[in-house]
Amino acid sequence: MSHRAPDLLTIKFVKTKRIVTQLLCRGSGANGYAAVMTRGNDVAPARRPTRSEAREEVILGVAFELLAERGYEGVTMTLIAERARASKATIYRKWPDKPSLISAAIARRSELDSPTWEDDTGSLRGDLVAAVNSMVRLTVGAWGSQLLGLLEALRSDPSLRDKVRGQIAETTITADRMIFARARARGEKIRAAGTTYVFEVALASVFTRTLLDGRRPDEAYLTELVDNVLLPLALEP
């Protein structure tokens, strides 16, 4: 079976979608529109969020902030409603329970902060080095305390665990489609099943070193991780 790398239009759409998302989240200009670059030097206006969408952004942002401040167990729907200045009825219409809201807040933040896979370095090795560096930046940034706060909650709350697992799986699938599809298109010999484990191992290694050991992986560690662990998992011998 042949594997086709994402074409330029697909990659450009992914990048443009990310830019639009970031601009909408950060606010728009005086005329109510955020500008994004399109083909050539043209500038296209991005749609201004509706009042309902803007309210959802506030609620999700508050939920994420409280997760960092109080940990999962310390966050309640009442507390989120009070800080977001929203009614609990409004929140429950969109999110039926706390796991749904917290997982949505994590997903929303990850759209802005998660590693990107679109940039092509020209080799699988280069793409993997860039990917693990992105993972490190993520875990030492705003996400660090939230991830630690979620550890116990993920063990004790099956609903939250299932939702977060689904988000991680979606990220891994996206990375697989982008990075390994490019590698196959370049003629690199990718194992049929090896890619399933590459990002799980990478995330576990970075997470353990950064959050549990309290040490930021240096360039030597990340290079060794890619060369001695990830590439052998991904490439045919």
TrEMBL record:
Residues 76-95 bind DNA. SUPFAM superfamilies: Homeodomain-like, Tetracyclin repressor-like, C-terminal domain. The keyword Lipid metabolism does not apply. The keyword Transcription applies. One of its GO terms (molecular function) is transcription cis-regulatory region binding. It comes from the Bacteria. Keywords: DNA-binding, Transcription, Transcription regulation. Residues 53-113 form the HTH tetR-type domain. Pfam families: TetR_C_11, TetR_N. This is TetR family transcriptional regulator. It comes from Amycolatopsis pithecellobii.
